[in-house]
Amino acid sequence: MDILEWAQSQNFDNNHMVRKLAGKTQFDGPNELDLELAKRTVKDRFIVGLMNEFEESIHRFNAVMGIDESEKQGKCMKRFFVKGKKSNSNPHPEVELGSPAWELLAQMNALDIKLYEYAVRLFEEQKMLFVNSRDDVEKGRRPVNAISAANDAKRLSARIKREEARRLKREQRYAASLARPK
Q1: What is the 3 state secondary structure string of the chain?
Q2: What is the pTM of this model?
Q3: From the CA atom positions of the chain, what is the Rg in Å?
Q4: CA–CA distance from 133 to each of 29, 110, 117 (Å)?
Q5: Please, what are the averages of pLDDT over each run of 10 residues along the chain (182 residues)?
Q6: Which residues, 6+ apart, have CB-to-CB distance to 132 below 8 Å?
Q7: 32 contact partners, CB below 8 Å, separation of at least 6
Q8: Which pLDDT score is estimated for 172?
């Protein structure tokens, strides 16, 4: 079965990321409002990483998690990054841009494509969360301020926990209202 046949007959999980970030099930069809919710979720809760900006992404994640990238600790990173070799751990069949399979998959996942385009823009915006990017470090400018980024992450994590607690309370109140006899 080729990718086009699969897309036509077996692929029932379209716009997967928008659906998940909007809290929908596999059988709920996402819409533009769900896309906006997904965008807000990504902006409020994630540090975006991109495969085509793999090293920069890893450096950002390290900064947020407070991982030391000094020379001593950098040996691990050097082993991880083989110059010029980046790969996604999951092989996928190639789909040619503009092919019938490409067009069908793009149509079926239009909201996820919009979310990805937003994530690419957000990746650039988030550069401001870090004192300097990896490019700046290589140009001899001040290194990434890991403590500041880690503190931002801690504040974000605390905010997410508060929001989650409020959401849970709302759900409990709603469930209790349904359980009350009328």
Answers
A1: CCHHHHHHHCCCCCCHHHHHHCCCCCCCCCCHHHHHHHHHHHHHHCCCCCHHHHHHHHHHHHHHHCCCCCHHHHHHHHHHCECCECCCCCCCCCCCCCCHHHHHHHHHCHHHHHHHHHHHHHHHHHHHHCCCCHHHHHCCCCCCCHHHHHHHHHHHHHHHHHHHHHHHHHHHHHHHHHHCCC
A2: 0.67
A3: 21
A4: 38, 31, 21
A5: 85 89 88 95 92 86 79 66 59 86 94 97 86 52 49 71 86 82 72
A6: 141, 142, 143, 144, 145
A7: 111
A8: 86
Paired residues of 85 in beta bridges: 82
Please give the pLDDT value at position 11.
Answer: 79
d(CA 35, CA 40): 9
Say what the pLDDT of residue 176 is: 83
Beta bridge partners of 82: 85
